[in-house]
Amino acid sequence: MVESNRVTESRKGTSIWREMVQVTNSSHLKKNNSKYPLVALYTDTFPAEGHAALEARGIPKRRVDYLLPKAGKDYSADPRFYDCWSKLTPFSLAEYDRVVQLDSDMLALQNMDELMEIELDPPSLAGKGKKVFAAGHACVCNPLKKPHYPKDWVKENCAFTSQHNTPDIAQTTGADPAVGPLGFMNGGLQVVNPSKEVYDLILNHMEADAVNMDFADQSLLSDLFRGRWVPLPYIYNALKTLRWEGVHAEIWRDDKVKNIHYILAPKPWDEMDAEGKCISKDPTHAWWVTYNQERLGNEREKGFEADGF
Q1: How confident is the model at residue 25, as a pLDDT?
Q2: Burial track 222-247 (b if 16+ CB lie within 10 A, e otherwise)
Q3: Which residues contact 205 (CB under 8 A, 6 or more apart)?
Q4: Is the dihedral of CA 253, 254, 258, 264 positive or negative?
Q5: N or C, which end of the chain has less CB nearby within 10 Å?
Q6: For range 52-77, the mean pLDDT
Q7: What's the gap between Cα 23 and its chain centre?
Q8: Residue among 66, 65, 62, 60 at smallest CA distance from 26
Q9: What 8-state DSSP symbol labels residue 178?
Q10: How would you class 292 by CB atoms within 10 Å of its CB: exposed for 0-12, middle for 13-18, buried for 19 or more?
Q11: Helices (H) then strands (E): counts for the chain
Q12: Other CB atoms closer than 10 Å to residue 38's CB: what's the count?
């Protein structure tokens, strides 16, 4: 283990939540009584005011490299994917035994500490086992009908569609990736046992074939470890679009969702008025605004300066 790189220790010793970077979610991991710490990962473009906000709140942070393949795909139709390669870095954090990555556009609604204990391959298997990492499925329905998405991203090929007739099971069990032809994961939440050997496999594959990867990190992991990752139930990476009628409302249960993922624009913080009130038609956006107002109120009582949200 590379002890010099560890910026925090959990009660277990070497397990962390890892996020790039969102103060509201840190607050609610604490509210949900997680016994594991959150570490905010940042790249060199992270601004000084962001560092100040983390430091004022006592949130540990760690610099990571900004990953970008030497020869990659043109993402001009969806520039966010240029930044997604850096989400592969949890595999490199070998100073920790277990890392759960959370995207910064997520909100933890319930305790998820059980993710720190699920069975995955040990680093000694060097990426050759059957449980390299755990993640939720991507929704391949393309509900916004984006024209640059692959033509086979349709509801019939979506893993979540296979659970419409068994919604109770969907709350506790992820669909087998083999249920559809794509077997595609979503990179918003990943459960990882970091390993230099696995990270080297990832970097080598990125440099060899990035030009063919439509969805950056997600394409890479879905291809490189096809059929060798553990599918989590949707509740841990509850893509907000799953709740929409005509997508996967059949399996969605508000009270079961542990972690909501605000994929696609607009985000909840984009749909607030000048007073910070929610003006969105999406009920899940109001959840984030309510939690954020609660956080800001608590922080005002403690004397924190406003952070812009």
Answers
A1: 79
A2: bebbeebbbbbbbbbbbbbbbbeeeb
A3: 220, 223, 224
A4: positive
A5: N
A6: 95
A7: 15
A8: 60
A9: G
A10: buried
A11: 7, 10
A12: 24
Residue 170, CA distances (Å) to 163, 165, 198, 218, 284 in order: 6, 9, 30, 22, 20
Q: Is the pLDDT of residue 13 over 70?
A: no
Q: Quick check: helix, strand or coil at residue 269?
A: helix
Q: Which amino acid is at 4?
A: S
Phi first, then psi, for residue 96 (nearest 5°) are -120, 145
Using CA atoms, how far residue 301 sits from 110, 296, 305, 306, 308, in Å, is 24, 9, 10, 12, 17
Q: Is the pLDDT of residue 136 over 60?
A: yes
Confidence at residue 287, expressed as pLDDT on a 0 to 100 scale:
98
pLDDT band at 220 (very low <50, low <70, confident <90, very high): very high
What's the pLDDT band for 2 if we cut at 50, 70, 90? very low
The span from the CA of 309 to the CA of 305, in Å, is 11
Q: Are strands 38-42 and 259-261 parallel, antiparallel or unpaired?
A: unpaired
Distance CA 185, CA 181 (A): 12
Question: Is the pTM value of this prediction over 0.90?
Answer: yes
Residue 5 CB: number of other CB atoms within 10 A?
A: 13
CA distance 300 to 274: 18
What are the two backbone dihedrals, phi and then psi, of residue 189, each rounded to the nearest 5 degrees?
-130, 125
**Is the bond into 90 cis (omega within 30 degrees of 0)?**
no
In whole angstroms, how far apart are CA 1 and each of 42, 196, 229, 305, 309?
21, 10, 24, 37, 37
252: pLDDT strictly greater than 70: yes
Across-strand partners of 260? Answer: 107, 238
